[in-house]
Amino acid sequence: MIVLILAYLGGVLTILSPCILPVLPFVFARADRPFMRNGLPMLLGMALTFALVATLAAVGGGWAIRANQYGRLVALVVLAVLGLTLLSNHVAEWVSRPFVALGNKLTQRSDADGDSVFSAAGLGIATGLLWAPCAGPILGLLLTGAALNGASVQTTLLLLTYAAGAATSLALALVVGGRVFSAMKRSLGAGEWVRRVLGALVLCGVAAIALGLDTGLLTRVSLASTGGIEQKLINAVKTAPAPQPAHKAGDVLPVEGALPSLTGATAWLNTPPLTMQSLHGKVVLVDFWTYSCINCIRALPYVRAWADKYKDHGLIVLGVHAPEFAFEKDLGNVTKAVKDLGVTYPVALDNDYAIWKGFHNEYWPAHYFIDPKGQIRHHHFGEGEYAQSEDVIRQLLSEAGQTDLPGGYVNPDAKGAEAAGSGDDNRSSETYVGYARAQNFAGGQIAHDDSWHYHAPATLLPNQWTLDGEWNVHDENAQATRAGSRIVYRFRGRDLHLVLGPDSDGKPVRFRVRIDGKAPGNDHGMDIDTDGNGTVTSQRLYQLVRQANGTGERLFDIEFLDPGVHAYAFTFG
């Protein structure tokens, strides 16, 4: 219910967005007619069509995008004809002549009752095919859920609720507009003048959509209009884990549950399969992680250090590798990552998320602390609070009868991507390149699973990104199909990381990074040199920027000198 309310409010707010401007003339073209027979059927047709088209676009492949493009062309022609009928009585009479017998006229030059519900609904369908609302935080959340969960009644219901919100605000504007137009006609006798102005505006709307302004310029302008309000709404209802009070040495640790079964693991590394029985009597730290997750990578030095420090005192560290991307399910990739990252303790591959679901986990990284009786006594999500976590380990080991525990806290000398983040709360947020979770994209409409030539806009607002060149965008990554393809991102943060991988043939891909149009110099990350040159050799996280001074806003540009690279997600530190 909360998500439905959020979707509805997001739709209501679209009337404040410049993205709504191109369709307003189509709506107001019938503002002087009875609302129940004209405005309402049109808005219902618009809402239903948008929900259907958005569902197909979110869950379908390239065929859905192409079908929608053809539908948009038909709708543009229909609404262009509507504009011409408003401009000229002769055109109106010529167009309406074939529809008189059917009672489905496109213009107000009609028979006795002068209106047709079916005509209004038809124009609403055409408007729904053309309407491309800006993907702000709320619509982005809905489209992400649609892409991840597939076509379903729930998916369409949420999108329909969003469209209903937009229809509500448009209906209010339409009722007010209709009264204004009626007053103008009575006081000025300006019916024909109003009609022709509306016709011109309809043609302007058609031209704006045909030129891509609704998904280009107006989208970029709109980011500053309702995005802040929408994000506050999301934050107000977002379900977050209950705050965990900082643990102090000696505090009583409550029992939070029992260690779930480990039988769902798809493979094991560094150990034979472990069971609840084999772990009974041991203190266990369960670390949910995945090898391309920057937060997991930054927490890893502490987990490794705890494993080494307390391995002779009864602590078992168990890494549960739960993949975020498909390539992280590959046993060879994970085996290599475990070796490269220096992980020597047991690792369970949880490709089916069986262990993840057993813990009811939702986060990377997540640490669960298990006592010798197999009871979960503490948990911690994300980075940080390492001293408190070590206090929990020491307390559980003491409860288990361990004495002469080594003193002090671990203080690993983490370097590169493993170094702690900058702590800048204003740094850019994690950004996915695949269409399933893409947000703040500034290059127009993203084609799904189809090769497309993208053009980077001349300027980007903060936290916007874009593609340039030939790309084939899939649900969780974008593939550069030609050499010279680029990704540009105006970001804020000390560090910029990008998860990359070569094509299926494994051939290395060379790339070049520029920051503010220049070689990075001292601001280069560990995976490039000072000239910005690097090579994608495997599927992993690449550190491309580490600013030597501060976390200020910069323009990042990466050009791939060979085709075939797959780009997955940006993270920042």
Please outline what is shown here:
With 573 residues, this protein is an alpha+beta fold.
Characterise this structure.
The longest helix has 36 residues, at 153-188. This protein has 573 residues and is α+β, with helices and mostly antiparallel strands. The protein is built from 16 helices and 18 strands. The strands form two sheets. Strands 8, 9, 10, 11, 12, 13, 14, 15, 16, 17 and 18 form an eleven-stranded antiparallel sheet that branches. It is globular. Helix content is 39%, strand content 17%. The protein has three domains: 2-237, no CATH class; 257-401, Glutaredoxin; 431-572, Galactose-binding domain-like (Jelly Rolls, Sandwich), CATH 2.60.120.
Descriptors:
seven-stranded mixed β-sheet, 39% helix, Jelly Rolls, alpha+beta, 16 helices, eleven-stranded antiparallel β-sheet, 573 residues, 3 domains, Glutaredoxin
